[in-house]
């Protein structure tokens, strides 16, 4: 007899929840040009499943190195699970346009 680890049970529940979400969103795909799913921090099963299923990823990051590093990690993971994903980026809370453009250049050249 096997007993699932609590993490495995949570992961299984997350998978079931995502399957329900994807089924519920399917009719909306034809009705809307854009469906936005906002994820918090972390790279759990749900985030990776959404990265694999999406056609477009919009990253939102601060101009600071830590924010750009986190965004880059998500970007790299998205390309691993979905090599054809289109990616855009919003640099949030930059004090000037020049700072935002410099952050984008750092991100793009990484």
Q: Would you write up a description of this structure?
A:
By secondary structure, this protein is mainly α. 59% of the residues lie in helices and 11% in strands. The longest helix has 26 residues, at 6-31.
Task: Name a few traits of the molecule.
elongated; 110 residues; disordered N terminus; mainly alpha; two-stranded parallel ribbon
- Which percent bin holds the helix content? 55-70%
Query: Helix and strand string, N-terminal first?
Result: HHEHEH
Query: How far do the termini sit from each other?
Result: 49 Å
Largest sheet: 2 strands, parallel
- Strand arrangement within the widest β-sheet reads 1-2
Q: Tell me what portion of residues adopts beta-strand conformation.
A: 5-15%
Total helices: the number is 4
- Unreliable segments of 5+ consecutive residues: 1-7
Number of strands: 2
- For the residues shown, what is the average pLDDT? 84
Which structural class matches the secondary elements? Answer: mainly alpha
Indicate the radius of gyration in whole angstroms. 17 Å
Overall morphology:
elongated
How do the strands and helices of this protein lay out in sequence?
Blueprint: H1 6-31, H2 45-53, E1 56-61, H3 65-81, E2 86-91, H4 97-109
Parallel strand pairs: 1-2
Structure described in brief:
With about 110 residues, this protein is mainly alpha-helical. About 60% of the residues lie in helices and about 10% in strands.
């Amino acid at each position: 007899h096997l007993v699932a680890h609590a993490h495995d049970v949570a992961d299984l529940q997350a998978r079931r929840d995502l399957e329900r979400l994807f089924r519920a969103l399917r009719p909306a795909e034809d009705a809307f040009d854009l469906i936005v799913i906002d994820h918090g921090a972390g790279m759990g099963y749900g985030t990776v499943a959404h990265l694999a299923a999406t056609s477009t990823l919009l990253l939102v990051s601060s101009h600071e190195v830590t924010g750009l590093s986190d965004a880059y990690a998500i970007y790299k993971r998205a390309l691993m699970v979905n090599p054809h994903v289109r990616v855009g980026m919003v640099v949030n809370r930059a004090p000037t346009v020049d700072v935002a453009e410099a952050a984008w250049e750092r991100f793009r050249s990484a």
